[in-house]
Amino acid sequence: MKTLGILGGMSAESTVSYYLNINRAVNQVLGGNSSAKMLISSVNFQEIVQHQKQGNWQRAGEMLAEQAKLLEQAGAEGILLATNTMHKVAKQISDNISVPFLHILDCVADNIQAKGLSKIALLGTQFTMSDNFYRDGLRERGITPIVPDEAKQKEIHRIIFDELCLGKIESTSKAFYLETIKQLSKQGAEGVVLGCTEIGLLIQQSDCELPFFDTAELHSQMAVDFVLGE
């Protein structure tokens, strides 16, 4: 079994889901009391959020690259960044380590294509929905993203940071997300990328007819395949 290094804490809520998903899946395969070998660097999310607000992605990337190097030095054989938004600085991280970087867009695109889909609604933080790093990353992998208008992006973003990252689940927010998905479906969306690792805490596949691609779940499975050497 390989040792996985996780860059976490962005937010703590989603990092917990990664930890549980990976360990449960490994245990299901290996049985007994088996669990995954993981090292976790949990950063202070407030520091990252401040850099995001200031547009100082360079410093945020440096912080995460430093932590990734520490994980590698501690024995991590691969690095997973447990958040969608901070994949904006994925290259900074991967350029500073010598072990594999498990990129979230690779597993997301693979799963979308496996279902024969190509036009997908994208929900996430406003950075993820509006910046080119995520949308272009999907396009480079053969997926056409559709995003909500700016006003809806702002409300989706607010719900993530003011509610989901703090463990708050509000029925009105759930209804807003589902109505947004319905509108994107009318624009041709064939499925929905839950492009923030907290969104799966609010809405589930049973809430919608369009297929969901829960990035936290897909990324966790990618991690399981890595640690088990598959």
Automatic annotation (TrEMBL):
Pfam families: Asp_Glu_race (PF01177). Gene3D superfamilies: 3.40.50.1860. Transmembrane segments: none annotated. It comes from the Bacteria. One of its GO terms (molecular function) is amino-acid racemase activity. Keywords: Isomerase. Belongs to the aspartate/glutamate racemases family. This is Aspartate/glutamate racemase family protein. The lineage of its organism: Bacteria, Pseudomonadati, Pseudomonadota, Gammaproteobacteria, Pasteurellales.
